[in-house]
Amino acid sequence: MSFALPAISYDYTALEPYIDAMTMQIHHTKHHGTYVNNLNGAIQGEHGGSLKGLSLEAICRNVHSAPDAIRATVRNNGGGHWNHTFFWTIMAPSGTSSSAPNGALKGAIESSFGSVDAFKEQFNKAAAGRFGSGWAWLCMDQSKKLFITSTPNQDNPLMANVADQPGLPILGLDVWEHAYYLKYQNRRPEYIAAWWNVVNWDSVAKYYDEATSGKAPVLEVPLQ
Amino acid sequence: MQLGLRLLVNGWKQSGFQHFHQGRSASSLEQVRCVHSLRTGEAAGSGTVDETLRALSVSATASASANVNIQLPDLPYDYDALEPVISSEIMRLHHTKHHQGYVNNLNNALNTIHSTDHVPTLVSLQSALIFNGGGHLNHSILWTNLAPVGKGGGELPSKDTALMKAIENNFGDLSTLMSLMNTAAAGIQGSGWAWLALNRNLRRLEIVTRPNQDPVVGAYTPLLGLDVWEHAYYIQYKNDRAAYLKNIWQIVHWKDVANRYEAALA
């Protein structure tokens, strides 16, 4: 039993012109594909016994207690597999989902940040300000309030005792250079601004609802 | 009353970087020693550092003229000189955008530091110094570590040089060194560098890695750096970091590495 690379529900060209097709293809098949392969390697390897049968979410939540010999591998590749599986679902071709948050999600954003614009500004700052590789996140904390954080490399807010500000992610943005360099080169703020055009607010609303019941995003995590 | 800040960084002298700043009123001096283990911290992620810089840059401009003007060093060769190993597009972006960005941000951070004696602010600028000071140092070394083929690029050090003898003592032979450095560089998660460095305490060559732009300082002198930030190779090699690392050795300027080694031993 091992993890499989999940399919994306839209074509590689579908997020153009905001995210280019070549980036989508390489990002999915090479980067995400490698995280899946490396995670499987760690779990099938001699130290991976305690991880067999764990869900991807559980693997992330319990990175801190993975066996010493494979902890870094599990953190980087388990995190990478979860993060990218999540990432493909919070995007959609421009115009195919709600173009802005509404309902309870909108209310929560306004109550936590003042306005949707103020939220975006703060999120942009976190995404642009993450030095090196990492992710920016919108999360829910234990008191059901929304907050923004960023993590380095492939860490995510599910990782207890690893993430600075743990929480339940409902929206995330990959700011590793491989996510934008082919089209935007060093111009990360331009990539961030463009990305808002392809955010799938219906997915984010679904994850918001799940988070209000204390659940992490429910993802399709295929097995081989 | 302004606090003068003298910035002294161990080991930075080797790369020709030395920055001293005399405060406007030298009532007290603060010595900031950057050690290689200094973590970049999470502050940048929340935008705190940027907010601070923005808020203070206004007062910095108002209170005194900018007195820090670190310059981007020129490349010792044309942007296309390292082709086909590294494309001119990458060299141009890497130098004029990424390295220039570190220089600009470093100047901003230093000017802000010099304009205030508010300790929480000074402390919060620590990560900006490491990111951008480290970025400036690392790339300044990198450009001289590389050379066009025919102008030293790829020319192996001769057997009787101090560097070659040290390489043989520490690693057996040159191809083992290259292989070990590539393994170290390939294994870096996220952004960072692999370095051949002199451990001055133990008088031996070591391979060390650093995350992000953390500089090689303290007891180590950096000699040769492999930049594995994706911006260093992605346009040309995409995700194939291994192919980039295999090729880079064709343009390593061993004479520069030897010069750095000999200077470090002195």
UniProtKB/TrEMBL annotation, chain A:
Entry's transmembrane regions: none
The answer, when asked if Plastid is one of the entry's keywords, is no
Cross-referenced Pfam families: Sod_Fe_C, Sod_Fe_N
Instruction: Extract the GO molecular function terms from the UniProt entry.
Output: metal ion binding; superoxide dismutase activity
Q: Does the keyword ATP-binding apply?
A: no
| SUPFAM superfamilies the record matches | Fe,Mn superoxide dismutase (SOD), C-terminal domain (SSF54719), Fe,Mn superoxide dismutase (SOD), N-terminal domain (SSF46609)
Give all residue intervals belonging to the Manganese/iron superoxide dismutase C-terminal domain. Answer: 101-206
Known InterPro entries for this protein?
Answer: Mn/Fe_SOD (IPR001189), Mn/Fe_SOD_BS (IPR019833), Mn/Fe_SOD_C (IPR019832), Mn/Fe_SOD_N (IPR019831), Mn/Fe_SOD_N_sf (IPR036324), SOD_C_sf (IPR036314)
Catalytic reactions on record: 2 superoxide + 2 H(+) = H2O2 + O2
Gene Ontology cellular-component annotations: cytoplasm
The enzyme's E.C. designation: 1.15.1.1
Q: Which UniProt keywords apply?
A: Metal-binding, Oxidoreductase
Task: Give start and end of each Manganese/iron superoxide dismutase N-terminal domain.
Answer: 3-92
Q: Give me the residues that bind Mn(2+), please.
A: 27, 84, 174, 178
Q: What is the recorded function of this protein according to its Swiss-Prot or TrEMBL entry?
A: Destroys radicals which are normally produced within the cells and which are toxic to biological systems.
What is stated as this protein's family in its record? Belongs to the iron/manganese superoxide dismutase family.
Fetch the PANTHER family from UniProt: 37S RIBOSOMAL PROTEIN S26, MITOCHONDRIAL, SMALL RIBOSOMAL SUBUNIT PROTEIN MS42
Q: What is this protein called?
A: Superoxide dismutase
- Origin species, per record, is Cyanidiococcus yangmingshanensis
From TrEMBL, chain B:
Q: Which Pfam families match?
A: Sod_Fe_C, Sod_Fe_N
SUPFAM superfamilies assigned: Fe,Mn superoxide dismutase (SOD), C-terminal domain (SSF54719), Fe,Mn superoxide dismutase (SOD), N-terminal domain (SSF46609)
Q: What class of enzyme is it?
A: oxidoreductase
Which GO molecular-function terms appear in the entry? manganese ion binding; superoxide dismutase activity
What is the reaction catalyzed?
2 superoxide + 2 H(+) = H2O2 + O2
Q: Which residues form the Manganese/iron superoxide dismutase C-terminal domain?
A: 161-260
Q: Does the keyword Metal-binding apply?
A: yes
Q: Which GO terms describe its cellular component?
A: mitochondrion
Q: What is its EC number?
A: 1.15.1.1
What are the record keywords, sorted?
Answer: Metal-binding, Oxidoreductase
Q: Which PROSITE patterns does this chain map to? A: SOD_MN (PS00088)
| Ranges of residues in domain Manganese/iron superoxide dismutase N-terminal | 71-147
What PANTHER family has UniProt attached to this entry?
Answer: SUPEROXIDE DISMUTASE 2, SUPEROXIDE DISMUTASE [MN], MITOCHONDRIAL
Q: Would you identify the family this protein belongs to, as annotated?
A: Belongs to the iron/manganese superoxide dismutase family.
Q: What is this protein called?
A: superoxide dismutase
